[in-house]
Amino acid sequence: MNNNCIVLQGVNKYYGKKQVLKDINLQVPYGQIFGLLGPSGCGKTTIVKIMTGILPANSGEVYVLNEVVPKLEVMNKIGYMAQSDALYNTLTARENLEFFGTVYGMKKTFLYKRIDEVMAVVKLSEDLDKEVMAYSGGMKRRLSLAIAILHNPPVLLLDEPTVGIDPLLRQDIWTELYKMTEQGVTIIVTTHVMDEAVKCHELAMMREGQVIAQGTADELQARIGAKTIEEAFIYYGGNKYEG
């Protein structure tokens, strides 16, 4: 387990009588971008929420940074970007960042420096003092990403982070994510977009609450002779995965 930043062993989750996660086993090495690929409703967001400690699993074990979660000390080391933007629309972007920086317990001098840095990363420096209600949907996603990385967390959990963001800026964001992994940050990205999935160091393909295949994009395609990751996803989704 010491070689892996995040480990899920036999994780099951129910909402009432409905089982939404079925015996999930994942190992995510340190310093990687690990993608959860699958359609809406397949369980990606539930897995991420369990990793953060927001949701408990009904059974199984979850470890982040070699600690059992949920655990408050671990939650403080995670940057989490939810699918829905949790922003204060009547505040400016700067005020939102200052608020979350205070929640993270950041010292003011470091916080002010980081605000400038993260807003430069998401290309919002010129809109720092604009009220969030005046932001477009894409700008709000970028601000949510800035908040998630504000406290330099060693683990970053991003739920559909580039939805609504234009292609050029999306590429810039991926460049920054790669830079973070070079510094040892471990990143989970959920996506249903195939061209983003191939950017991940490793993938877990999901359907109906189950992991149907896992490996690098090249490995997943090579196992079945697929020419594209789309072709591989369709194959694994319709066939029993044997490893």
Word description of this protein:
With about 240 residues, the chain is α/β, with parallel strands linked by helices. It has one domain (about 30-50, about 75-240): P-loop containing nucleotide triphosphate hydrolases (Rossmann fold, 3-Layer(aba) Sandwich), CATH 3.40.50.300. Helix content is about 35%, strand content about 25%. It has 9 helices and 10 strands. It has helices at about 45-50, 70-75, 95-105, 110-120, 135-150, 165-180, 195, 215-225, 230-240, and strands spanning about 5-15, 20-30, 35, 60-65, 65-70, 80, 155-160, 185-190, 200-205, 210-215. Strands 6-7-8-3-9-10 form a 6-stranded mixed beta sheet, sandwiched between helices. A 4-stranded antiparallel beta sheet has the order 2-1-4-5, covered by helices on one side. Strand 9 and strand 10 form a beta hairpin. The longest helix is centred in the last third of the chain and has 16 residues, at about 165-180. It is globular and about 50 Å long. It starts with a strand and ends in a 5-residue tail after the last helix.
